[in-house]
């Protein structure tokens, strides 16, 4: 489509009270600015991102995820021209930043819920300016929109509003489509005569209306257009996104118990028939295929196929698990398990375990020697007795039986039985000698 997109992300984000730039705060595992970039890239091949505060950090994060082919970065001349209007100015003067196309879609970088479909509704061939408006029960923090005869006549920022204006519940959602000539005409006319001493982009709207240029309001939903300025709005936006992610999964056939307690990140994928119990947390690029994830399990960046996991298991990044049963209090990290049972209380890190093997309670792969991480390889049909420590690097062939309580330091060959126990000694009467009384007196005390 022949439209350029400008995303404003140069603000200080003071209300977040954080050293992390506001637009890099994450919602469902992804930086909030990245959601708008994703949507912008669906609409345009000419994306402009305006930065100032911590611009190096933000630019680096964007380039790492998106490359920079279709994205042009601008550093706002924030000292001379602070404010959302200043953001669209070419660093040196009040002319607009140069864009490839004659129409420019402008959006704030703090609107993580915005979707391509909703943005397209604002692109009207008929008017020189259109803007998104929201009707809110609580309009606090937003610019209030004055509408007369179905046309916007001005926007009043909360910090400049009289009490009567503050009671208006129609607010500016922060997305606009401008014909380029409108920006060329009106950006140079902006001033900073307001309580924030900023150049407001929103003042262009009033200037247009005065010159009888129509500004078309497009009513949109809070669900798609809410802005994030504080940590509580961050949490609220995340709760809206989570609801969407869960509904999408359930529509696809996933069973969810108490869905409102399940946390998912935006890149999690479900395939086939899955069941997810309450309190489960699935993060990163995890893929869950035909599996049952039981209550309070945490899965990060891992693939689970035809398996049942938990309750209360912790699958850390880099695991590939198939045809496997993982029980409670089992922690896995960067491990490949195929056709395995690990029912209770184990740490399995940097290992691969093959079909038919059974991992007893309390088995630990000692993968870290204080300097380096090492691998544990376990073949097929290996029975690892409870409370065994596997000191990595170690290689255990198929068909091996390891007695419980073994500390394994050497590789095992096919067919081996391995034990490393200290011989048990039973000392008759030792109990009474230790506590200093006799069997007779202990019986009379009962
Ligand atoms: C802005 C609007 C307000 C609207 C609200 C919607 C203005 C003056 N006000 O207010 O009418 O209701 O969004 O969410 O536009 N930014 C820059 N450079 C700056 C200042 C801000 O690039 O100098 C960026 C910020 O990084 C942010 C966006 O612009 O992504 C909006 O700035 P913010 O300070 O959040 O504006 P609001 O007060 O929310
Ligand atoms: Ca905002």
TrEMBL record:
Protein's job: Catalyzes the last two sequential reactions in the de novo biosynthetic pathway for UDP-N-acetylglucosamine (UDP-GlcNAc). The C-terminal domain catalyzes the transfer of acetyl group from acetyl coenzyme A to glucosamine-1-phosphate (GlcN-1-P) to produce N-acetylglucosamine-1-phosphate (GlcNAc-1-P), which is converted into UDP-GlcNAc by the transfer of uridine 5-monophosphate (from uridine 5-triphosphate), a reaction catalyzed by the N-terminal domain.
Similarity remark: In the C-terminal section; belongs to the transferase hexapeptide repeat family. In the N-terminal section; belongs to the N-acetylglucosamine-1-phosphate uridyltransferase family.
Pfam family, one: NTP_transf_3
Region of interest (Pyrophosphorylase), ranges: 1-231
Cofactor note: Binds 1 Mg(2+) ion per subunit.
The protein, known as: Bifunctional protein GlmU
CDD domains: GT2_GlmU_N_bac, LbH_GlmU_C
SUPFAM superfamilies: Nucleotide-diphospho-sugar transferases, Trimeric LpxA-like enzymes
GO molecular function, one term: magnesium ion binding
Domain MobA-like NTP transferase residue range list: 6-143
Start and end residues of each stretch annotated as Linker: 232-252
Location of this chain's protein in the cell: Cytoplasm
Taxonomic superkingdom: Bacteria
Active site per UniProt: 344
Gene symbol of the encoding locus: glmU
Assembly, per entry: Homotrimer.
Pathway: Nucleotide-sugar biosynthesis; UDP-N-acetyl-alpha-D-glucosamine biosynthesis; UDP-N-acetyl-alpha-D-glucosamine from N-acetyl-alpha-D-glucosamine 1-phosphate: step 1/1; Bacterial outer membrane biogenesis; LPS lipid A biosynthesis; Nucleotide-sugar biosynthesis; UDP-N-acetyl-alpha-D-glucosamine biosynthesis; N-acetyl-alpha-D-glucosamine 1-phosphate from alpha-D-glucosamine 6-phosphate (route II): step 2/2
NCBIfam families linked to this entry: glmU (TIGR01173), PRK14359.1 (NF010939)
Reaction(s) catalysed by this chain's protein: alpha-D-glucosamine 1-phosphate + acetyl-CoA = N-acetyl-alpha-D-glucosamine 1-phosphate + CoA + H(+); N-acetyl-alpha-D-glucosamine 1-phosphate + UTP + H(+) = UDP-N-acetyl-alpha-D-glucosamine + diphosphate
Binding site for UDP-N-acetyl-alpha-D-glucosamine: 8-11, 22, 83-84, 143, 157, 172, 229, 316, 333, 347, 358
Region annotation N-acetyltransferase: where it falls in the sequence: 253-446
GO biological process, one term: peptidoglycan biosynthetic process
InterPro entries hit by this protein: Bifunctional_GlmU (IPR005882), GlmU-like (IPR050065), GlmU_C_LbH (IPR038009), MobA-like_NTP_Trfase (IPR025877), Nucleotide-diphossugar_trans (IPR029044), Trimer_LpxA-like_sf (IPR011004)
Organism lineage string: Bacteria, Pseudomonadati, Campylobacterota, Epsilonproteobacteria, Campylobacterales
Residues annotated as binding Mg(2+): 110, 229
Keyword annotations from UniProtKB, A to Z: Acyltransferase, Cell shape, Cell wall biogenesis/degradation, Cytoplasm, Magnesium, Metal-binding, Multifunctional enzyme, Nucleotidyltransferase, Peptidoglycan synthesis, Repeat, Transferase
């Amino acid at each position: 489509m022949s439209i350029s997109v400008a995303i404003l992300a140069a603000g200080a984000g003071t209300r977040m009270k954080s050293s992390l730039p506001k637009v890099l705060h994450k919602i469902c595992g992804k930086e909030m600015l990245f959601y708008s970039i994703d949507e912008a890239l669906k609409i345009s091949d000419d994306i402009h991102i305006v930065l100032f505060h911590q611009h190096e950090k933000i630019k680096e994060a964007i380039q790492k995820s998106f490359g920079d082919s279709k994205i042009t970065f601008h550093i706002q001349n924030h000292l001379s021209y602070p404010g959302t209007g200043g953001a669209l100015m070419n660093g040196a003067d009040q002319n607009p930043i140069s864009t490839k196309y004659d129409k420019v879609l402008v959006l704030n970088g703090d609107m993580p819920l915005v979707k391509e479909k909703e943005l397209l509704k604002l692109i009207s061939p008929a008017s020189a300016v259109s803007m998104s408006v929201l009707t809110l029960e609580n309009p606090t923090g937003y610019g209030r929109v004055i509408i007369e005869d179905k046309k916007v006549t001005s926007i009043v920022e909360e910090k400049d509003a009289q009490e009567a204006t503050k009671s208006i519940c129609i607010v500016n959602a922060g997305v606009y489509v401008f014909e380029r000539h409108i920006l060329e005409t009106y950006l140079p006319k902006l001033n900073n005569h307001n309580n924030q001493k900023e150049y407001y982009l929103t003042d262009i709207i009033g200037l247009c209306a005065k010159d009888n240029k129509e500004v078309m309001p497009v009513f949109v939903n809070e669900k798609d257009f809410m802005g994030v300025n504080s940590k509580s709005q961050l949490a609220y936006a995340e709760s809206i996104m989570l609801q969407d992610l869960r509904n999408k999964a359930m529509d696809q056939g996933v069973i969810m118990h108490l869905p409102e307690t399940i946390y998912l990140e935006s890149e999690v994928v479900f395939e086939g028939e899955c069941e997810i119990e309450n309190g489960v947390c699935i993060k990163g690029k995890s893929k869950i295929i035909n599996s049952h994830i039981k209550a309070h399990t945490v899965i990060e960046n891992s693939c689970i196929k035809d398996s049942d996991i938990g309750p209360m298991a912790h699958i850390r990044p880099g695991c590939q698990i198939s045809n496997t049963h993982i029980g409670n209090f089992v922690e896995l990290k960067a491990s490949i398990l195929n056709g395995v049972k690990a029912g209770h209380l184990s740490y399995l890190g940097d290992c691969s375990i093959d079909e038919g093997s059974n991992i007893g309670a309390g088995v630990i792969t000692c993968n870290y020697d204080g300097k380096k991480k090492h691998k544990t390889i376990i073949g097929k049909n290996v029975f690892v007795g409870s409370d065994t420590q596997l000191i990595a690097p170690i290689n255990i062939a198929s068909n091996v039986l390891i007695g419980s309580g073994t500390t394994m330091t050497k590789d095992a060959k096919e067919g081996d039985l391995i034990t490393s126990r200290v011989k048990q000694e039973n000392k008759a009467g030792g109990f009474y000698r230790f506590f200093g009384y006799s069997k007779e007196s202990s019986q009379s005390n009962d």
